[in-house]
Amino acid sequence: MKKTVVHVTHEAVQKIGGIGAVLHGLITSKVYRGGVERDILLGPLFTTDGPAEGRLHGGQVLYSGVDGIRQTPYASDFARIEHDFGVRLVYGKKKFHDPLTGVTSEPEVLLVDVRHFNPEKMAVLKFLLFERYGIESGQYEHIWDYEQYCRIAEPGLEAVRAIGGCVNGTKPIILSHEYMGMPTALCALCKYPGQFRTIFYAHEVATMRRLVEEHPGHDTMFYNVLEKAVERGEYVTDVFGSQKGFYKHPLVESSRFCDNIFAVGDYVVKELRFLRKEFNDLHIDLAYNGVPARKLTIDEKHASRQKLKQYCLSLLGFDPTFVFTHVTRLVPSKGLWRDLRVMEKIEEHFAKQNETAVLFILSTETIGRSQNDVLHMEKWYKWPVAHREGHPDLTGGEAAFYAGVQEWNARGRQCKVVYINQFGFDPKACGTRMPADMEFLDIRKGSDAEFGQSIYEPFGIAQVEPISFGGICVFTSLCGCAGFVQKAGGGKNVWNAIPVDYTKLPESMKGQTIAKLMRMDRQMREEIEGLVAADIAAELNRRLPRTSKDMEKLIASGGKLGEEMSWDVVARDFVLPGMDRALAGKGG
Questions:
Q1: Beta strand 284-286 pairing with 260-263
Q2: Is the pLDDT at 344 greater than 90, yes or no?
Q3: How far is CA 408 from CA 404, 405, 562, in A?
Q4: How far is CA 225 from the centre of its chain?
Q5: Residue 376: what pLDDT?
Q6: CA angle, 397 as apex, 394 and 403 as ends, to 5°?
Q7: Residue 326: per-residue pLDDT
Q8: pLDDT band at 586; cut points 50, 70, 90
Q9: Residues 6+ apart with CB under 8 A from 304
Q10: Residue 422 and residue 448: Cα distance in Å, rounded?
Q11: Strand pairing partners for 360?
């Protein structure tokens, strides 16, 4: 029997980050489609502003309690649910299409407007969450992010039942993408026993992310402490104190009650087992993320690469020997400052070899700038080479990062950095100095090396997207993609990937106690980063393609890796078997 899967996520209608990429990758996988008959995307309705046709961001609205649309036989049931819970529902379908696989799929979408939720219904559910799972919701009720995901749980499940999700013996799988879906999963377990199966999809471990990001020692401190604590049989609260004040923590901790757990990386498994003792006895399925896989010819590689080189020539007045890239969100966890440290070290090699490079960093912390704003900035102060603080250009976080870019560009001679604070990579998004036929895929196909040296990165899809196009991918050994690349490469050293270890301590620091490691400051961590950056630069310099033959080898080896890391492979080897285990009950 084919499966019905209910994905509970904040990215039900709009791709924002990694979860949206996972949804798109799975839903457009031929293998996944062969095992899953029905996908239902469940999430909050974030706004009631605007016209009805915008509710599903391009999808087809069949029912909307907000707009009075009733073009579905489920309308009466939806109206009953709305009355009982004080909510408004939006239901319809949204088309997913992947040009690489050729697969088109139309999952159903259920959005819940929970602003006026029935308080008595909410009180009953929160009591059950405390009684059964020890979650004290009272201390988090002022946090809307917590509250809204509690409120979508019961009406969301009722709506799934109303559209026939549980008929003919079907047990829909509630797939909790991160903490957001856990109230729904727990509600399914305690209010609808035996009718659903539940899986926690750990795209990260929120407790560990916060600890890594907030400590000046970042990953260098945290993972050394984790290893020593595990050796002593200790858990996160033993070392870092109570985490109950963080609203995501009890939700993630309660994933131990689900029928199965998916973890997107090897270290995510370690982090889950570090939460508390009970996780050591649970089955946890690795479920790596997939990579867009497509065969590339050497001519296509040269064509995309030439566009990037031409863009550099137009912006900076030189034709670089190599093109480096980093496409990411502008958040502290991405460790963007580490890119500049590597550029500093590779500059030394290139000075001796009379070679040059440009690093395009495509990252923003806001929505895309309009075409008119881009043309204005480009005309008056040569954006994106130069920037100005304030709308429509730099936000506060972007300005802070750009200061580091400016400092580097003032010193660098062989290597330059172009910071593009924009969403999109084509002339419409980036201006007239970009080649007229540039498209986003060119920054993937044409890159010689993609950086992604995050301080916390459970998987890292963006880091390995260029790998099947012959790019060299530089990521930390803590990333889930590092484990997947190693498996795809048969456990051998893969020429297209450089996993780097920022947790490697110098001899002088080895053998330190947990207490001393936890006192690691920024200066100490930066000293270690400098040593690691020098090693990365030397290795990258050794592997960079300097002839067409070198490039052809990278394309061939990267293409093979991409095939072994595709979403079809992920669905076949990890996700579908893990769902079968959940259907069998408690990890199979």
A1: parallel
A2: yes
A3: 6, 5, 34
A4: 25
A5: 97
A6: 75
A7: 97
A8: low
A9: 441, 442, 444, 445, 446, 469
A10: 21
A11: 325, 418
Tell me, what amino acid is at 167? Answer: V
First to last CA, the chain: 17
Question: What is the longest distance spanned by two Cα atoms in the chain?
Answer: 75
What are the tens digits of pLDDT across the range 223-241?
999 999 999 999 999 999 9
Would you call 526 helix, strand, or coil by DSSP? helix
53/13 Cα distance (integer angstroms): 12
> DSSP code of 44?
E
> Exposure string (b/e) for 554-588, b if CB count within 10 Å is 16 or more?
bbebbbbbbbbbbbbbbbbbbbbebbebbbeeebe
Mean pLDDT of 35-53: 93
* Type of residue at 516: K
Q: Among 334, 320, 311, which residue's Cα sits nearest to residue 401?
A: 334
Q: Based on C-alpha coordinates, what's the Rg of the chain?
A: 25
d(CA 298, CA 294) in angstroms, rounded, equals 13
Which tens digit of pLDDT belongs to each residue from 507-520?
Answer: 888 889 999 999 99
pLDDT at 73: 96
Q: What is the average pLDDT score of the chain?
A: 95
The 10s digit of each residue's pLDDT in 137-157 is 999 999 999 999 999 999 999
Q: To which H or E segment does residue 368 belong?
A: none
φ/ψ of residue 308, rounded to 5 = -65, -40
Measured CA distances, 13 to 25, 45, 299 (Å):
15, 9, 37
For the question of whether the overall pTM of this predicted structure is more than 0.90, the answer is yes
HEC string of 130-162 equals HHHHCCCHHHHCCCHHHHHHHHCHHHHHHHHHH
